[in-house]
Amino acid sequence: MQLPKILIVDDLKTNILALSMILKKVDAEIITAQSGNEALTKVLEHDISIILLDVNMPEMDGFEVAEFLKEDEETKHIPIIFVTAMDRHDGNSRKGYVSGAVDFIYKPIDSFILLSKVNVFLDLWKLRAGLKLEVEERKKNEEKVRYLSGNDLLTGLCNRRSFHERLQSEITRASRSHEKFALLFLDLDGFKKINDSLGHEAGDFLLKELSALFKKTLRNSDLIGRYGGDEFVVLLGNIKDKYSILQKLEELIAIASQEFHYETHIMKVSASIGVALYPEHAVVDTKLLSYADTAMYLAKDEGKNRFCFYTQELNEKFKRQLLLDKHLQTALQNNEFELYFQPVIDLQNLKVVGAESLIRWQKNKTLGFVSPEEFIGITESNGLIYSIGLWVLEETLKLLDAHPHLYMAINASSLQFMNNQLYDRLKENVESGRLDPAHLEIEITERLLLDNVHSSENRLLDISKLGFSLSIDDFGTGYSSLSYLKSCPVSTVKIDKSFVSTIPDSSDEALCNAIIAMASALHLKVIAEGIETEEQKAFLRDSGCDFCQGYYYSRPLPKEEFLAFVVKGLDS
Ligand code: C2E
Ligand code: MG
Ligand code: MG
Prior knowledge:
This protein is of the alpha/beta class. It folds into three domains: 5-134, Rossmann fold, CATH 3.40.50.2300; 160-310, Alpha-Beta Plaits, CATH 3.30.70; 322-568, TIM Barrel, CATH 3.20.20.450. The strands form four sheets. It has an eight-stranded mixed barrel with strand order 13-14-16-17-18-19-20-21, surrounded by six helices. Strands 2-1-3-4-5 form a five-stranded parallel β-sheet, sandwiched between helices. Helix 14 (421-431) links the parallel strand 16 and strand 17 (440-444). Helix 11 (312-331) packs across helix 12. The radius of gyration is 42 Å and the shape is rod-shaped. One magnesium ion binds at residues 473-474, 494, 529.
């Protein structure tokens, strides 16, 4: 708390000096004035706590000064003690009280009385100053609480709750003035990696930088909020149509994908944005948000670092995904999955060497047949792929238990290499002597190969060290790079059926030949998928392809039919 200030006003310097001497004992700053005018100026300049005011002064007397001070809101509460030589019974003292005095002290001054009076008022002043401070503090706290409840602590952007409120009022406003607006759901791609590898401080730094840049590129009338960890919501108000915001969307995408420097690191993420339009897509806040969110998932699905507008079809797709997700949760317990086996043929001697296990989901009463191409992706997002993957392995092992001479292949999702479940199960079965790893091949995607090169844990290598062979499925359709092929423990490539199905198209023939030549140079086996005609089979066999699968020989079959197929063979 600052020192209280006592203003002594007297036209005689000696009086001022005398009063100042007495007040030395008081813990206060002394300010002096020798006329009424000077006193008023000092009051304006300083935050005065008490005034000792001489009544008899030339030009403006003490009563006039007090009246002036009483008129002003700012100064009317300053306690004034009149210092006077007048008789205390004189009617003037009444005048003094009217003009604003709170007390009188009579000359000659009794220092004891003066000090006691001044101290009483100083105590009061201190109490008031304390209260004032408390009120200010409370106001500040209230403001802070209001800010915190509406703003995100880290980025300063508005938070989820206040964004909802603002969105609702924007809907009311836009409907009244027949305006359109766009709601954007923006999710950062690859943010988790930054947090995991460089730590939360780096992640926080990136979020702060990005928030500031996003905000800067928006108009004042637009609104941006932080919705969750690395999710933002943006409202672009009063737009003409969807085309008028394309440039803004591009700008946001560009901002998110620039490099940021943190300590010695360079950080880079990108953004996937979903856009829903008011009133075209929806007029209710929850719907707009969920549609923008759905469109954001599409943007992720289509490769990230892009924006997508919501469409009705997208909603149908999303609804279907939700339905499948719901039924998938219980599919394993309800025994709704089956494993089919598509025979693999040795092209050179036309013997059935084994099969690829392919999952089927066709026993669900509501859904009927659902293609693995549709549901495997969903099991990857809801995490069911791990248990389903182990089920596929177990069913394949059961077949191998009874027919150990066969060579089987299972498809494994990239996610199954992100933890140890698959590896542990394979290891257990090898160590217990149940499984000869030379008889089980694991089909992986090209994408996994690429990611694996960058990952420190090399589960592919671990699995191959157990004796299993790995094959690259759908070879030629993904991101294959020949150098990865060399450095990863892969023993087989499977030519994708899209190259086989167009044979005798000459460019696909050339492609197949190139793959076979490359595989042979790297000592890899080649399996051709999707052979449907005699011509395709003949071409691939003559080109030196080792194995094949396809409807030409057999569709994927239920277990008993497959075993019958094996017994029957091709030449009978
Ligand atoms: P994929 O591993 O490339 O399997 C080959 C797909 O081609 C199978 O489709 C098979 O039925 C089909 N196919 C085989 N021969 C021909 C042919 O001659 N012509 C045509 N047009 N198609 C043929 P399916 O069973 O629908 O499986 C689709 C994809 O789903 C598989 O592609 C695989 O990536 C995935 N998948 C299937 N089962 C599993 C599984 O148990 N686990 C995992 N992670 N993915 C699986
Ligand atoms: Mg496969
Ligand atoms: Mg394939």
